[in-house]
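Most newcomers find our protein records easier to grasp once they have seen one. Read left to right, the backbone structure tokens trace the chain's path through space. Once this layout is familiar, the rest of the handout is easier to follow. The record below serves as our worked example for the rest of this section:


***
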Amino acid sequence: MGLFKKASRKRVFLKIGLMGASGSGKTRSALELAKGLANGGQIAVIDTENGSSSLYSHVTEFDVADIEPPFAPEKYIQAIKQAEEQGYAVIIIDSFSHAWKYLLDKKEKLDARGGKQNSYANWGPVKTEADELKNAILQSRIHVIACMRAKTDYSQEGGKVQKVGLAAIQEPDVEYEFTVVFQIDQAHNAQQTKDRTGLFGERIFKITPDTGKTFLNWLQSADDEEVYVPPTQREPEPVRSGVQDQPRPKADKDLIAIRKSWGFEPEHWVEFSDACKADGFDPVAMLKKANAGDIKDMATALEWVSYGCPDLPTAEPKPTQDEKDADAIDPMELLK
């Protein structure tokens, strides 16, 4: 068997970063996003912010693990593994920045010891721990939402001073490890700064459960129903006693077939989905209805939605080859 094979977009477990200054609403945004993304499944929260996530228990139901200092990466890794084993649909890490602050403090202590160890060499053990946590997140078979504090600056507009979030307080370039990263401002508006899904473009919006559902629809439209498994996890592992297998969300085969047939891009699906929701329609159901009514492209489907999704004539089924052959027979031949 060759090393290479045809590429196809598989189902994945999303790794989403939320970045913003204090007060930007990262915790609530994460819970709103998780509510839609979990799709009825359970949500877990790693809370290093003095129980701040529990202040939003009215937003959605979730279980919380309150982590106390020191915020060593191994505490995060243990919690992520437990959430995965116990079948949670989504885990929120609030705050991912505390682990990096712990590692920077550790580096300072190593530097203070002096001796033969120099400052550059002291990054070795720090980088190892950072990579272990990063790999635990990236290779986990669970959706992860990581909240990251942003370095703060201030700007003045119209005589009003506003707090502005800059780069995340985390390992440099860590945002490139995520599927999507959203920057959230002090008005709680989000904009993607890195997006592998192509769903959000330059839009500025508030994160709601519908944002999570947009991700779900994107996952369901994957070319391949198979869930992507990282290479390091492709050998089967024994299931611990009393722990059920991780539930896998089902791909919508009809939606996949329509996307392949119509050839539309993710941003077209977002436009169609938003148009349907604005009129109170379920976008997946409407897409299937449009396809059954012999609409075969997204432009026509969008025009149809703009008219309120009126009833469509059902496409006539194509005749089978046997039916074609029967129609070709001269009826008089049957009387001979």
Remarks:
- The two ends are 58 Å apart (CA to CA).
- The mean pLDDT is 80.
